[in-house]
Design brief:
The protein has 127 residues and is of the alpha+beta class. The chain has 3 helices and 5 strands; from the N terminus they run ααβαββββ. It has a 5-stranded mixed sheet. A hairpin with a 3-residue loop joins β3 and β4. α1 runs antiparallel to α2.
Length: 127
């Protein structure tokens, strides 16, 4: 089955948004395939580890927010660029990569996160 790039982009956004805003179990149920390989070193491998991590994050930081700046799909992969705002107005830019199976379900994840500095040498935003 060929990849539906637009559906994969929408599903990656919906998956991350659902988990980030406090319902990781539903995110996994709706958007994750039979396996879930995690490359973030702070999160365990597999579906339950993902649910546990995001449940704890939402409990500890319920007022955080996320803005999806862009999503790009190619082959079986979606790349997301987001701006996260945490309590105290701390902002982080994240780049997430999701690999999809042939059924349009997420099966693997990589990410990088960087705090937005107050100033940059180039004057450009990070998003």
């Amino acid at each position: 089955m060929s990849q539906n790039l637009e559906a994969n982009k929408n599903n990656a956004i919906a998956f991350y948004n659902t988990a980030y805003l406090g319902d990781p179990a539903s995110a996994v149920k709706l958007y994750v395939g039979d396996e879930y390989i995690q490359h973030n070193p702070l999160v365990g491998d597999g579906k339950q580890a993902f649910i546990d991590y995001f449940t704890e994050m939402h409990r500890d930081y319920p007022d955080k927010s996320i803005e999806f700046v862009r999503a790009i799909a190619q082959d079986d992969t979606v790349a997301q660029h987001t701006l996260q705002t945490w309590p105290g107005n701390e902002q982080y830019v994240t780049m997430d990569f999701f690999r999809f199976d042939s059924n349009g379900k997420i099966i693997e994840h990589w990410d990088a996160i960087q705090q937005v500095p107050e100033q940059t040498l180039n004057g450009n935003t990070m998003y």
